[in-house]
Amino acid sequence: MAPLNVEDFRILARRRLPRGMFEYVDRGTEDEVGLRSVHSGLEQVKLRPRVLNDVSAPDTSTVVLGDALPMPVIVSPTAVAGLLWHDGEVQLARAARRAGIPFCVATQSMTTMEEIAERAPGANLWFQLYVFEDRKIGWQLLERAKALGIRNLLFTVDTARSPKKEWNTRNGFGIPIQPSLVGAMDLLVHPRWTLSVMARYMLTTGIPVYAHYPPEYLTRMTRASAMPNVKLARKLTWDDVDEVRRRWDGNLVIKGVMDREDAQQAVLRGADGIVVSCHGGRNLDASPPALQVLPGIADAVGHKLTVLADSGIRRGSHIAKFLACGARAVLVGRAPLYGMAASGEQGAHAVLEILREELDHCMAFTGHGSLDTITRDVIAREC
């Protein structure tokens, strides 16, 4: 039977991928309290059913930063997409293009933004920026993005340290990839992935690298970089936001905002949008879920900039919950990765179509013909 939901694709991805790689995508950090909170928080929010409204053709379209989208979804930047399927970033960009929604290219992509643009012509590409210890590397990436005509920059600011993922150490997987007996056995028991992805890279372009690093800093995924210049900046301040704003004349969206005062500061620094995000439970394990803090942040700044949100979305009803709490649209990361890991572009597009259809159903059951009417009143309150 064909997969019917995101969880079905997740199960297929788990079967196909080496365990270490699947868990790198799927799991959280430390005790995974934050990850469980993301999922339980979404489950606990209930929506109010309404009847006898005209929901014959719910309109799932919206406008985000000037772009008309057929549904309020953006495909998130993810660092390992190119390892889940051969040319994974290109597959995701094509799937997003078919769905009519943006795909955000990651700084740590294994395919350059230029190649993605060439091989997925017509795709609505955003670019995600991490700032390195050597700031010049990031500024060069901004120039490359501008040269491609990319208008939307997603500046990720919530990763001041590498999260502690103990299970990665135990299962022999990490970025950069380190050879180990556990890892080798993992590859042997997943021959489909080993042959169709890693062997294919080895026979064509070689072992994948972080494609956006300057040539002098490129390192194989099997070797840790000896150059501190290409490590993510440990000191990241609002001065860096000011510098990015000065250098970027397109839309600037700050990703990783979880505090009302930070959101207000983003307004003052000239941001066009923010992403309320707990990084999917992958960074601070003690963080509240994004959905919990979203209403207060949206109330504070939603009339001044575009509020987006992410973390944990696996159902169309989850999208509706984020919209009801104040988001204009959502970013989805793991869900399309599961689809792509199962069957490439087709799987990623199928996941996006499932989310669109489920959102349509959720709107019908709650009596809403357009996204604009999905407000805080949609959320059911206990007596």
TrEMBL record:
Question: What's any one GO cellular component for it?
Answer: plasma membrane
Q: Where is the active site?
A: H279 (proton acceptor)
Q: Which InterPro entries match?
A: Aldolase_TIM, Alpha-hydoxy_acid_DH_FMN, FMN-dep_DH, FMN_HAD
Keywords carried by this UniProt record: Flavoprotein, FMN, Oxidoreductase
One Pfam family per UniProt: FMN_dh
Binding locations of FMN: 77-79, 128, 130, 156, 255, 277, 310-314, 333-334
Biological processes per GO annotation: aerobic respiration
Keyword Nuclease belongs to the record: no
**SUPFAM superfamilies xref list:** FMN-linked oxidoreductases
Signal peptide residues are none
Cofactor(s) needed? FMN
Residues bound to glyoxylate: Y24, H279, R282
**What sequence ranges are listed for the domain FMN hydroxy acid dehydrogenase?**
1-383
| Coiled-coil intervals, chain numbering | none
One GO term in the molecular function aspect is: FMN binding
Family per record? Belongs to the FMN-dependent alpha-hydroxy acid dehydrogenase family.
Name of this protein: Alpha-hydroxy-acid oxidizing protein
To which species is this protein native? Caenimonas aquaedulcis
